[in-house]
TrEMBL record:
GO CC annotations on file: acetyl-CoA carboxylase complex
Organism: Pedobacter petrophilus
Record PROSITE patterns: BIOTINYL_LIPOYL
Name of the featured protein: Biotin carboxyl carrier protein of acetyl-CoA carboxylase
The protein's annotated pathway: Lipid metabolism; fatty acid biosynthesis
GO MF terms held by the record: acetyl-CoA carboxylase activity
Sorted UniProt keywords: Biotin, Fatty acid biosynthesis, Fatty acid metabolism, Lipid biosynthesis, Lipid metabolism
Its biological purpose: This protein is a component of the acetyl coenzyme A carboxylase complex; first, biotin carboxylase catalyzes the carboxylation of the carrier protein and then the transcarboxylase transfers the carboxyl group to form malonyl-CoA.
NCBIfam families linked: BCCP, PRK07051.1
Keyword Ribonucleoprotein: no
GO biological process: fatty acid biosynthetic process
Record InterPro entries: AcCoA_biotinCC, Biotin_Carboxyl_Carrier/Decarb, Biotin_lipoyl, Single_hybrid_motif
Amino acid sequence: MDIKQIQELIKFVSRSGVNEVAIEQENFKITIKTNQAPTVVQATVPQAPLVQAAAPVATAPTAPIAAIPAEEDTSKYITIKSPMIGTFYRSASPEKPMFVNVGDEVGIGKVVCIIEAMKLFNEIESEVSGRIVKILVDNASPVEYDQPLFLVEPI
């Protein structure tokens, strides 16, 4: 089982609402547990050390940076959503500039943020062209699969 399959399994577990999933094969065992605790992934391979990684599981949506007034029509905007569970970062490191800010124009393939999952830093690219209108997640906050991250006004 490779890292991509493990990430897909974690997504499935978070969507399904189950508390624990365990898979055991001939030379591989993985257990994923949820329910108000960190997701724990354990994998063992013969003659290899135990690999253990944890990713936080957010239990409630994080507070948006800029709240959208109830009367504001957001239907004209496109939402960039998180493709995985992890920690949202707006820049590659604290001393580097933010990937995007409100008002910036983005194109298809432009990196808009990083999501850290299982100690891997995944660059999230825009799938739309437009102008960033809202950033919906605070920097260094946990995010869920399919959670809205940005609102983009198409160009």
